[in-house]
């Protein structure tokens, strides 16, 4: 019960905009993730306000920050889509532009979240595929298999051409 009161207070703090003017990307990501992971649905207006801040900060977000915001959106039960529909596509666009910064595990996490939240974001999937081909040697077996599985799902949805998958598989063998 105590944590619910805290989550409600944080939701209201965000909705009122008191915490968002000087918030850094990492702080915002943790606020959004904590509010969504706490088991209490976000109050109306939370994603509109927090999403606006996330959009402002998207280009400076570290991979872990993007992943936390995407996890918050995944737990929101569609509220982020109602209040800030451009949030996930813009975050994925910013992530695509900085894909070389993503470690293998981060890339796989972002890929899985992107498939769940915005499976039509072709530029993001292409960036993941291109980055992973050039950095194949960095991927441990587990992340490599998860990467290939996730990119195969993107191929199945016709977002990623099958030729990209065959190139990735050839690189893996070669």
Task: Describe this protein with a few key phrases.
0% strand, 174 residues, mainly alpha, elongated, single chain
Summarize the structure.
With 174 residues, the protein is an all-alpha fold. It is 71% helix and 0% strand.
Topology (elements, then pairings):
Layout: H1 2-15, H2 25-37, H3 46-57, H4 63-75, H5 79-83, H6 87-97, H7 104-117, H8 122-134, H9 141-156, H10 162-173
Describe what you observe in this structure:
This protein is mostly helical and 174 residues long. Helices cover 71% and strands 0% of the residues. It is built from 10 helices and no strands. α6 packs parallel to α8. The longest helix is centred in the C-terminal third of the chain and has 16 residues.
User: Rg, please?
Assistant: 17 Å
Assembly category: single chain
Q: How large is the count of helical segments? A: 10
Strand composition percent: under 5%
**Overall helicity:** over 70%
Class from helix and strand fractions:
mainly alpha
| Residue-averaged pLDDT | 84
């Amino acid at each position: 019960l105590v944590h619910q009161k805290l989550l409600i207070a944080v939701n209201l703090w965000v909705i009122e905009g008191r915490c968002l003017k000087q918030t850094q990307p990492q702080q915002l990501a943790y606020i959004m993730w904590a509010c969504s992971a706490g088991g209490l649905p976000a109050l109306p207006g939370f994603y509109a306000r927090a999403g606006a801040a996330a959009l402002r900060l998207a280009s400076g977000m570290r991979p872990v920050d993007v992943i936390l915001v995407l996890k918050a959106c995944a737990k929101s039960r569609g509220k982020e889509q109602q209040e800030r529909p451009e949030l996930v596509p813009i975050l994925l666009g910013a992530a695509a532009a900085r894909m070389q910064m993503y470690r293998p595990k981060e890339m796989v996490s972002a890929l899985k979240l992107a498939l769940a939240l915005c499976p039509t974001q072709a530029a993001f999937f292409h960036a993941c595929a291109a980055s992973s081909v050039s950095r194949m040697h960095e991927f441990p077996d587990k992340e490599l298999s998860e990467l290939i599985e996730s990119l195969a799902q993107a191929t199945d949805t016709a977002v990623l051409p099958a030729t990209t998958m065959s190139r990735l598989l050839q690189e893996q063998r070669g």
